[in-house]
Amino acid sequence: MRTFVIGDIHGGLLALEQVMKKAEVTTEDTLIFLGDYVDGWSQSVEVIDYLIDLKSKQNCICIRGNHDQLALDWLENRHDDFDEEMWYKHGGKATVEGYAKISEQKKKSHIEFLENLQDYYLDDQNRLFVHAGFTNLNGVKWEYFSKLFYWDRTLWETALSLDPKLKEDDLYYPKRFTVYKEVYIGHTPVTRIGQTVPVNKACVWNVDTGAAFRGPLTIMDIETKEYWQSEPLNELYFNEKGRN
């Protein structure tokens, strides 16, 4: 049995199917999805259908992403602190178009799926899986604003800026990087720093390889750190814009 972590999918079902096949995933394996299943390419609805079906067959842990929460807010007609125009520009338009084609019954099953996403997952080896990050120096259980689990970028920015020569026992070493053995995130594509593969900084692994844009989708074995990638999403969906 293996445990895999999967980066941000953003409606790219074709890419998800590719990496599942390349990694030779079986029903004995555990899958940890880091969120952002929707908004971007045209198959957001199909991605959620796929995940619902997958959860019925094997152990799947589905983390909440900011785009998943935005889609849920839209589906449940919640407009507080919701900039619908901005959401449309960042992938929401494709999600709205997808939901216009399905039944109310299926829509309700998707709402239930989105409502039951986890803010984070902490395994028995003190490895944290969260969409974006956390800000409390003592860890996720003490986080005051739960929205930061799927909106924070400071964890990754701090990891990127950290002097690799700084030791964990140094007075200036960020305490957030001493709480967990490893932290797996998505949310901020590594394409922003010119990469298209998982990037490790301090104890943080960023597995968002830019599938929402022109990067591939990545699935990684958390024990061996071996990873498999799809074709770039703009090539798989060559007649679409995605979030580009």
Automatic annotation (TrEMBL):
Pfam families xref list: Metallophos
Cleaved signal peptide residues: none
Record's keyword annotation contains Hydrolase: yes
EC code: 3.1.-.-
Ranges where the Calcineurin-like phosphoesterase domain occurs: 1-191
Molecular function GO terms recorded: hydrolase activity
Name of the protein described by the UniProt record: Metallophosphoesterase family protein
Annotated organism of origin: Flavobacterium procerum
